[in-house]
Amino acid sequence: MTGIVSDSTAVQYHIGVSRAMLRGARYVLLPGDPDRVEPIASCLDRATELARHREYRSALGYVDDTPVLVMSTGIGSPSTGIAVEELARLGVTHFLRLGTTGAIQPHIALGDLIISEGAVRLEGTSGHYAPVEYPAVASLSLTQKLVEAALHHNFSYQTGICCSSDSFWPGQERYDSFSGYVQRRFQGSLDEWQHLGVLNFEMETSALFTIARTFGLHAASLCGVIALRTQSESVQEGVYAQVKERLALVARETVKRHAALGAR
Ligand SMILES: O=P(O)(O)O[C@H]1O[C@H](CO)[C@@H](O)[C@H]1O
Ligand SMILES: O=c1cc[nH]c(=O)[nH]1
């Protein structure tokens, strides 16, 4: 039986790109927001748009001679899991999430970058790939290059554990939802994660780390802080432009340094 999804030479069913379109790219930069693809791609050389399909918008560019795909994942772990599946099939081996996030530690500032060493799996998708005991951990070599790149640009950054939630409101203990209700299991959870040293909330990193690991592939996560959850439930949209620029600059430098290792 042949199906479009399982054929590695075909245009992939959800993401709308094929192996030939990737020009051998092994690196992918993964923002959640489709509108972040173009500004990130504009920090690469010779960038061109590839496709727009559902939440997946893609562009191909270069860091010197290294081809790099930029593709949005949409919001959340299910669509991120589909992106990893289909990109892995096309030969992508290194996945770098470029996201926005809400910080839950008081020493973190708006615009800071957070590099995740691991992630709390507060989502369902990764459980379809590995049991709950399996850790969601980052690729060491890719993460080391992220740290070097943030230092190179002199951007303030933190490293640690993030919490990846399946919901933006109750799972991140926000009370400004439509109903205002947060289930008992999440009441007090922000405080608890904070005491356990978790740095931030977002929605994709744990699925990305888990799935990439189970495939024997490499993933890292860089997020820019747009909400200070110890002060407010709101996101501060004024910092979004600065965060976007920082993510793109650090990503380019990370690929440059990692590609120079010549690792497969
Ligand atoms: O800015 P992105 O990459 O989408 O990331 C964060 O923003 C979205 C929620 O607003 C979630 O996807 C969360 O993980
Ligand atoms: O607080 C935040 C900000 C961005 N993304 C999230 O998931 N949470």
From TrEMBL:
EC number: 2.4.2.3
Catalytic activity: uridine + phosphate = alpha-D-ribose 1-phosphate + uracil
Annotated Gene Ontology cellular component terms: cytosol
GO biological process, one term: nucleoside catabolic process
Gene3D superfamilies linked: Nucleoside phosphorylase domain (3.40.50.1580)
Domain of life: Bacteria
UniProt-listed InterPro entries: Nucleoside_phosphorylase_CS, Nucleoside_phosphorylase_d, Nucleoside_phosphorylase_sf
Top EC group: transferase
Molecular-function GO term, any one: uridine phosphorylase activity
Domain Nucleoside phosphorylase: 26-254
Keywords, comma-separated and alphabetical: Glycosyltransferase, Transferase
Family: Belongs to the PNP/UDP phosphorylase family.
Name of the protein in its database record: Uridine phosphorylase
Organismal lineage: Bacteria, Pseudomonadati, Pseudomonadota, Acidithiobacillia, Acidithiobacillales
